[in-house]
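Can't paste images in this forum, so I'm doing it all in text. The chain is below; anyone willing to post the predicted structure tokens underneath?
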Amino acid sequence: MASTIQSILPADYTGGTFIGRAASPDGPVVIAIRDGILFDLTQVVATVAGAVARRQFDGGREIGPIPDGLPEGWELLSPIDLQCIKASGVTFALSAIERVIEERARGDAAGASAIRAQLEEKVGSGIRSVVPGSAEAMELKNALIEEGMWSQYLEVAIGPDAEIFSKSPVLSSVGHGALIGVRSDSDWNNPEPEVVLVCDADGEVVGATLGNDVNLRDFEGRSALLLSKAKDNTASCAIGPFIRLFDDAFTIDDVRKANVDLLIEGPEGYTLEGTNVMAEISRDPLELVRQCLSEHHYPDGFVLFCGTLFAPTQDRDKPGAGFTHKMGDVVTIRSERLGALSNTVTTSRDAPAWTMGIAEFARNLGERGLIDRI
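Text version of the structure:
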């Protein structure tokens, strides 16, 4: 997918600091953007996780102004490396209702439309008005139990505990321009446009980026115990284009009020648009980080998908069947302060194999004399 770096950065990129990664002929490099200039930080710090831990975002070798792009033979990678990849689910009222629909439809897209209307009538207004874990939320829970409408998804939507899960292994995420995968045996699936928070080992949020938390609605709808199969597949986690670091001009408050726009362009001319409005999230992003950290420890830091408001229901092929991906769909996720992340859909079976795991990454850095700069 051809695009210039400038075209995928936010309009105010010259006023921000960004960090990311690229594949060079020698191996992965850490890159930064400061004052509109691209720098190679690899000789200073060889991993993004290390840069975050040590707050080492300056220095490095100047590559050139952003309009000149990356050096020849370089390609953007996901902007993270050794961080654990975590995700929070059912963090918006609409997505909670859609998860219940998947559960009640047993993963069958054809039955979703009628269930959606019933649930929206019974649950919609109540779930939008309560604070998760509050006394009012517990009253709503009891009322829904009495009506036989309670669900494990509603438990994490309005109960005290957020849904936090491991999305993808370390080093497995793909970046802007890469193919993104859905399982070849899934026939009801969708992208999930999200803000991704970037945290150090202590859970301090240092910046944010965009992500596509690809979801298989048929798998998870059959059983919540299939979450891992629905979420963790080859090329099923896209992150990028760069991490925008927090500073005086970009803070967690900008994340809280961000709009994340989604555009799907199908090979047959189909288009679908939607927006993930972060202001409508049920739990504050920092509360999600707190629950992710919990009683855990992430020595190389972690990133956290914040969940999505957007669940595509627009029919694609036949009435009542809703949306599902086709091979060749181009998915673009864009936010004013974070830039744009675009990927083309294929199957996880046909996506390029993930080959640079932790051992290969360490070997590559060792061969380049960089192992002590992790």
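The CA atoms of residues 184 and 349 lie 6 Å apart. The chain has three domains: 5-80, 84-91+162-358, 95-158.
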